[in-house]
Design a protein that fits this description.
The protein has seven helices and 17 strands. The chain is α/β, with parallel strands linked by helices and 385 residues long.
Amino acid sequence: MPLKCNAAPMIFTLQSDEADERPVYLTGNFNRWDPRDAAYQMNPAGTNRYELEVDNEVLPERIEYKFTRGGWENVEIDRFGNITPNRKIQKKRQKAEDHVERWRINWGPFKKEFFPIVEIISEDFYIPQLNRTRKIWALLPYNYHQTDKTYPVMYLHDAQNLFNEGSAYGNWEIDKKMSILAEYGRGDVIIIAIENGSEDRIREYMLDNDSITKNAEGKKFIRFLADTLKPYVDQHYRTQSEREATGIGGSSLGGLISIYSGFLYPEVYSKLLIFSPSLWVNPENNFPQMNFKNPYNIKVYMYGGEQEGSEMTERIELFEQTMEGWENSHSLQFDFKTSINPEGKHQEFYWSQEFPRAMEWLYYDTTEDPKELAAKAESVRNETS
């Protein structure tokens, strides 16, 4: 980055063991840990070697940093695939020479010992509100049966595209991504995955829009989730049943029905995971909601890709502005985190990449060192094994 003063710059030098065409970025406590900050892209300086001069004035006295290949899903790891601790150096040293053995690729490699326990709640779970059945899954933390802990819960739509092989569209690989979060000490969440109704999907994920589908069933489906499924899950699993520990989410129409769920049942959900929502269905953003005497706070993680078309990112921005404008006149108060991927398309691959970031922000939102959290998780695993 351009130098701003005459003080000698700090020089960061990196040697990588792996040949890799992806650019290398420096990130740390000087740029809010942005893993793909163009101002901190390193310059090639030989075979698998990189260098960057950083203005001395922008650096704190005690520097903490890491190297990435353009995102936390592509961060440095050791030769065994383990998380590396933050690198630390005093600014007065003026030069840092480092070595990276391996790099993650789209969050991999994934460690089997941290994979969640996958259970089928029912092949034919009855939906009394719609008089039909549905297959529903539970993904439990890897050490669920070795502890007596209670866990927060995330309800996710379109289970056919969330994990398992064979989906026509690919999948989010949430089992693998939850193993990564568990490795970082951030995987203590139960996932309830609800399969969509195939030919009934559009009707179930819509409220009222005769131009899209006749006889929309979204209100009944939302009632099923809150009034039937959630009580069953809370009864049969060690959940934290309060709203502060409960979230709902999905992508596309699954994201849209999650917005409706959160707005109509804010006493049930406090966290919304909304990926590439079909906001074109309701361009006026006139979402229905219940009014309560005391306001409910809702955390909303919004994601969209600039390559999705249909004005996805513009609609997300307008949605956020509209919701924030509600706060003085409605009973919902919002805490937004919006992530826009310039390369993102309307595909499971991109939702898969974003999933760990969303879960971490919704359920942890912490600046604690991931290495320290990973050590805590390892300690718990050793105690229960």
